[in-house]
UniProtKB/TrEMBL annotation:
This is Putative cysteine desulfurase IscS. InterPro entries: Aminotrans_V_dom, Cysteine_dSase, PyrdxlP-dep_Trfase, PyrdxlP-dep_Trfase_major, PyrdxlP-dep_Trfase_small. Keywords: Iron, Iron-sulfur, Metal-binding, Pyridoxal phosphate, Transferase. It catalyses: (sulfur carrier)-H + L-cysteine = (sulfur carrier)-SH + L-alanine. Its EC number is 2.8.1.7. It holds the Pfam family Aminotran_5. Belongs to the class-V pyridoxal-phosphate-dependent aminotransferase family. NifS/IscS subfamily. It is an enzyme of class 2 (transferase). It comes from Peptoclostridium litorale DSM 5388. Its cofactor is pyridoxal 5'-phosphate. GO terms for molecular function: cysteine desulfurase activity; iron-sulfur cluster binding; metal ion binding. It comes from the Bacteria. The keyword Nucleotide-binding does not apply. The keyword Protein transport does not apply.
């Protein structure tokens, strides 16, 4: 039987806001035409207008132009489309791609596939806080480099990269730049009118919007070949019937985010970090303390398995994760933790806590009190704990 949980895994997905569902509802039952029927009948016009309004809202939130935003099925498709679309368009120029060692799987696995198909890839190192080595990045750009893909912020440890500096470097060297902003979208300021970014991935599911809908920013006149063929939807850049209810819900989710929400999340994040590090011995924060996502806290509990912590917390009604959501079925140590210099033991002992508007300080207090008891008990029986 499902148990109601106190949810601290909001980097994996967020709870849908009721106001979003209310906005979506008419497009399931009243205005259910496809947007490409705008030239045939009135319902099609209303559907098309809804898509246009939503695109305008989302473009404005990023200081982008509406025709630079295409809707996708989510951040995974967006990153696939950007990377494969850019490399396909420029393969005659070169076959060298640059990325970092801590990218999320939609980027890493897309690039690894291209690597198997004949592209050459340089994987940039990061320091112990997760920042990319800018000197290595600069020296790695070659005449045949066609794309740099560096995330805006890390999905596990929350470190925010300096995409302004990365973008400027790419523009100077005439190389396309893609960034995965899945976790920074609407959480930190993004002004695409002042950033040298050619492609940006973002999604609704991290900001209390519906799952299965995302967006891709493609700067005007950027070389690109579409991934999905068919009709002429999305400015002929992504074929397929638009998911109008989800698009409308995506825009509503963006509209209703309070201007001070990130500050509120940051205060709760810092409170959580301070309590854990001060009250539970042998713990350490992963990532940078200041340049990190406002909703993210990633902590290693030394001498104990993170999986054991998550399972015990689940029994007490708390949902957390041992890394990015993609690690749930993997026994491998986190590639992010290993890249920042952690040991296998540290990687397996790390827990990611990610917050949302539905979390409270009282919930954090309950979480820390519970996890303190769990860690203490697990260390008593842990072989790692006995070695201390």
């Amino acid at each position: 039987m499902f148990q109601t949980q106190i949810y601290f895994d909001n980097s994996a997905s967020t709870r849908l806001d009721e106001r979003v569902l209310e906005e979506m509802n008419p497009y399931f039952f009243d205005i259910y035409s496809v947007a490409t029927s705008e030239f045939a009948y009135s319902m099609g016009i209303e559907a098309k207008e809804a898509v246009d309004r939503s695109r305008d809202i989302i473009a404005k939130s990023l200081a982008a132009k509406p025709d630079e935003i295409i809707f996708t099925s989510g951040s995974c498709e967006s990153s696939n489309a950007a990377i494969k679309g850019a490399t396909a368009a420029l393969s005659s120029k070169g076959k060298h791609i640059i990325t970092s060692k801590i990218e999320d799987f939609p980027v890493l696995n897309t690039i690894k596939r291209l690597e198997r198909e004949g592209f050459e890839v340089t994987y940039i190192d990061v320091d112990d806080r997760g920042f990319v080595d800018m000197a290595q990045l600069e020296s790695s750009i070659r005449e045949d480099t066609i794309l740099v893909s560096i995330q805006h912020a890390n999905q596990e440890i929350g470190t925010i990269q300096d995409i302004d500096a990365i973008g400027n470097l790419c523009r100077e060297r005439k190389v396309l730049f893609h960034t995965d902003a899945t976790h920074t979208f609407m959480r930190v300021p993004i002004d695409l009118s002042n950033l040298n970014v050619d492609f940006m991935t973002f999604s609704a599911h991290t900001v209390h919007g519906p799952k299965g809908i995302g967006g891709l920013f493609i700067r005007k006149d950027t070389p690109f070949k579409k991934l999905i063929d068919g009709g002429f939807q999305e400015f002929n850049m992504r074929a397929g019937v638009e998911d109008i209810p989800s698009i409308v819900g995506f825009a509503k989710a963006v509209q209703i985010i309070p201007s001070d929400e990130s500050k509120t999340l940051q205060k709760m994040r810092d409170y959580l970090i301070d309590r854990v590090l001060s009250e539970i011995p042998d713990t350490s924060l992963n990532g940078d303390i200041s340049k990190r996502l406002p909703q993210n806290a990633n902590i290693t509990f030394h001498y104990v398995e993170g999986e054991s912590i998550t399972l015990h917390l689940d029994m007490y009604g708390f949902a957390v994760s041992t890394g990015s959501a993609c690690f749930s079925k993997s026994l491998e140590a986190s590639h992010v933790m290993m890249a920042i210099g952690g040991s296998h033991e540290d990687a397996h002992g790390s827990i990611r806590f990610s917050l949302s508007r539905y979390n409270t300080v009282e919930q954090i207090d309950n979480l820390v009190d519970t996890i303190s008891k769990i860690v203490q008990n697990l260390r008593k029986i842990s072989p790692l704990g006995k070695e201390r």
